[in-house]
Design goal:
heterodimer; A: about 350 residues; Peroxisomal Thiolase, Chain A, domain 1; five-stranded mixed sheet; four-stranded mixed sheet; about 25% strand; B: about 55 residues; mainly alpha; 3 helices
């Protein structure tokens, strides 16, 4: 990336639905022993879940409004809006267009959706970055939001115990400041693994209206149906453990960096055990690790931007340092970005995170 | 012996089993092979296929 023009993240904020789903609640549904065992593995004791009627777009608008207000950003300044989600308001039109109207952005603002799951954040940043450095836009609002709880079968203990809902808003601006902003990106896809995380009857391949929601129970007692998200947990876990360390090393090699050059390594918060094992494989020291999953669960596409926001709020972003963000999930898909923070880092957004209707 | 016979045999247990056999036999199972493991027989078959590759 030798272009002198770059872009940088100037603020990030997130929003959580107010309803809490605790391990005690889930023990009544799945049994205490089962929930305790999964919780030991996942590191999750509580999730935030959106009640029916509250969508990913609602949470994203809330996060964006609070960010714009606290950072005193004029709405007319925003000329690019990207919304990434797999739980959009509608199949048609793009939810970003609806959000564009709700945020009262100007008509000359580009708005579009990106359909990716847990791997979305580096992709959305790269697309916004590309449009900013090309001159097509100057100020971008990137929204990553999912309400995965809405597409889970309530009897699927392997997924219900892991997932929470959330949204994040990231403000990106073009910059001429040398050596600040995105160091680079590294992406990849293994489409042969698409079948391992999907909702079978959810699009035009198998229209929901033509497929009955017949419930099935797997070997571990998880109940699901073709209308709900289904995941082969072992396959996805194994893929992540094998692939993520490899592609992080590739990204570091590509930009001639080592773990020693990074201040922070942020991983998609899939589950605590998985991230522990990835950190171990890469020999990432404790002081460069950061978790935010215990009280929120795996928030799919909102997970990594929310992690970044929380690291910023907790004072873990050191001015002038580099951090790496790795996100991975359904597709199978992965994305990595490396960010160089400026010597003078803006204040973290301190606004409330609870969604209020 | 299959996953339905052993309540503790969940997806994490499958991954731990796979990591152990990969280390023991010096092999790497594919994502699809791991996806299909549901009993001891399918685990043995995955190991045998990988050793022959």
């Amino acid at each position: 990336m030798k272009n002198t023009m770059n872009s940088q993240i100037s603020a990030v904020h997130y929003c959580l639905p107010s309803e809490r789903l605790t391990n005690e609640d889930l023990a009544k549904r799945f049994g205490e022993k089962t929930v305790a065992s999964i919780s030991r593995m996942s590191g999750i004791v509580e999730r935030r879940v959106a009640r029916p009627g509250v969508t990913a777009a609602d949470l994203a608008v809330c996060a964006a409004e609070r960010l714009l207000q606290e950072k005193k950003i004029e709405r007319d300044k925003i000329d690019l809006l990207v919304f990434a989600s797999q739980t959009p308001d509608y199949q048609i039109p793009a939810t970003s267009c609806i959000i564009h109207n709700r945020l009262r952005l100007r008509q000359s603002c580009a708005s579009f959706d990106i359909n990716l799951g847990c791997s979305a954040y580096p992709y959305t940043l790269a697309v916004a970055h590309g449009l900013l450095v090309s001159g097509a836009a100057r100020t971008a609002l990137v929204l990553n939001a999912d309400t995965i709880s809405h597409v889970l079968h309530p009897g699927d203990r392997s997924l219900v115990t892991l997932h929470g809902d959330a949204a994040a808003a990231t403000l990106l601006e073009s910059t001429n400041e040398p050596d600040v902003g995105f160091v680079g990106f590294h992406f990849g896809t293994d489409g042969a693994g698409a079948k391992h995380i999907l909702i079978p009857a959810s699009g035009t391949r198998s229209p929901r209206g033509e497929v009955d929601a017949v419930e099935t129970t797997d070997d571990n007692g998880n109940i699901s149906s073709p209308h709900h998200l289904q995941m082969n947990g072992a396959a996805v876990f194994h893929f992540s453990l094998y692939k993520v360390p490899v592609v992080i090393r590739e990204a570091l090699d590509k930009y001639r960096l080592r773990i020693d050059d990074l201040d922070l390594v942020l991983l998609h918060q899939a589950n605590r055990t998985m991230d522990d094992m990835i950190y171990k494989a890469l020999k990432v020291p404790l002081e460069k690790q950061f978790y935010f999953i215990e009280k929120v669960g795996n928030a799919a596409g909102a997970s990594t931007p929310m992690l970044l926001a929380e690291a910023w709020r907790q004072g873990r972003l050191r001015p002038g340092s580099k951090c790496l963000i790795a996100a991975f999930g359904n597709g199978l898909s992965w994305g990595i970005t490396i960010i160089q923070w400026p010597g003078v880092l803006g204040q973290a957004v301190q606004a409330a995170v609870d969604y209020i209707e | 012996m299959s996953k339905s016979d052993i309540p503790e045999w969940d997806s994490v247990a499958t991954v731990r089993l796979v990591l152990s056999v990969e280390q023991e036999f010096g092999i790497h199972l594919s994502t699809d092979q791991v996806a299909d493991i549901r009993d001891v027989a399918s685990l043995v078959q995955a190991i045998e296929t990988s050793i022959k590759r």
